[in-house]
């Protein structure tokens, strides 16, 4: 079959005699009606697809997201309140523990002081008893020493009198030593 040229009356102004488009077919005024019809059909189809399928899914996702964000913010506020309460309870417990520790320290100091006072009183009593014993022993030693000094003095005086060539009786020597020892 031979290609016959198409007449311009049938094809219109947008097609040459061989049926090929002249220029861009989208800009041909003869085809605008057809293009506008299919554009409206495509837009209506896209609108119905988006409004019936995609937009409800997107809306559900956005609503779920908003709900999650709201719940998370509420949970965060609750946790913040709980944390503040826990911090206050911790501070109170710390203050109570410090006060109790001070009371325990004070009680321990009082007990130690009482034990120390008892020990000091016991030590003082022992020291007083030993001091009294020592004083008694010292006075016995002093009395014994005085007797020994007196005996030695009498023996020495008798020996001196005998060495000098005199004679004296024990009563005279004893009276002379006693007088001298008294002052």
TrEMBL record:
The chain crosses the membrane at residues 36-55. Keywords: ATP synthesis, Cell membrane, CF(0), Hydrogen ion transport, Ion transport, Membrane, Transmembrane, Transmembrane helix, Transport. It is found in: Cell membrane; Endomembrane system. It comes from the Bacteria. Signal peptide: none annotated. GO terms for cellular component: endomembrane system; plasma membrane; proton-transporting ATP synthase complex. One of its GO terms (molecular function) is proton-transporting ATP synthase activity, rotational mechanism. Its main location: membrane. The keyword Transport applies. InterPro entries: ATP_synth_b/b'su_bac/chlpt, ATP_synthase_B_chain. The keyword Transport applies. It is a single-pass membrane protein. PANTHER family: ATP SYNTHASE SUBUNIT B, ATP SYNTHASE SUBUNIT B', CHLOROPLASTIC. Component of the F(0) channel, it forms part of the peripheral stalk, linking F(1) to F(0). The b'-subunit is a diverged and duplicated form of b found in plants and photosynthetic bacteria. F(1)F(0) ATP synthase produces ATP from ADP in the presence of a proton or sodium gradient. F-type ATPases consist of two structural domains, F(1) containing the extramembraneous catalytic core and F(0) containing the membrane proton channel, linked together by a central stalk and a peripheral stalk. During catalysis, ATP synthesis in the catalytic domain of F(1) is coupled via a rotary mechanism of the central stalk subunits to proton translocation. F-type ATPases have 2 components, F(1) - the catalytic core - and F(0) - the membrane proton channel. F(1) has five subunits: alpha(3), beta(3), gamma(1), delta(1), epsilon(1). F(0) has three main subunits: a(1), b(2) and c(10-14). The alpha and beta chains form an alternating ring which encloses part of the gamma chain. F(1) is attached to F(0) by a central stalk formed by the gamma and epsilon chains, while a peripheral stalk is formed by the delta and b chains. Belongs to the ATPase B chain family. NCBIfam families: PRK13454.1 (NF009988). This is ATP synthase subunit b.
């Amino acid at each position: 079959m031979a290609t016959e040229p198409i007449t311009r009356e049938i094809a219109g102004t947008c097609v040459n005699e061989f049926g090929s488009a002249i220029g861009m077919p989208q800009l041909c005024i003869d085809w605008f009606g057809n293009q506008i019809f299919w554009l409206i059909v495509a837009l209506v189809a896209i609108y119905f697809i988006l409004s019936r399928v995609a937009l409800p899914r997107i809306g559900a996702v956005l609503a779920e997201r908003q709900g999650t964000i709201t719940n998370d913010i509420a949970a965060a506020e609750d946790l913040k309140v709980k944390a503040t309460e826990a911090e206050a309870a911790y501070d109170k417990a710390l203050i109570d523990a410090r006060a109790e520790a001070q009371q325990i320290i004070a009680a321990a100091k009082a007990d130690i002081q009482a034990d120390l006072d008892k020990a000091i009183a016991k030590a003082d009593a022992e020291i007083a008893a030993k001091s009294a014993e020592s004083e008694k022993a010292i006075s016995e030693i002093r009395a014994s020493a005085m007797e020994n000094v007196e005996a030695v003095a009498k023996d020495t005086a008798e020996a001196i009198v005998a060495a000098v060539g005199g004679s004296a009786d024990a009563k005279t020597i004893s009276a002379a030593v006693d007088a001298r020892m008294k002052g």
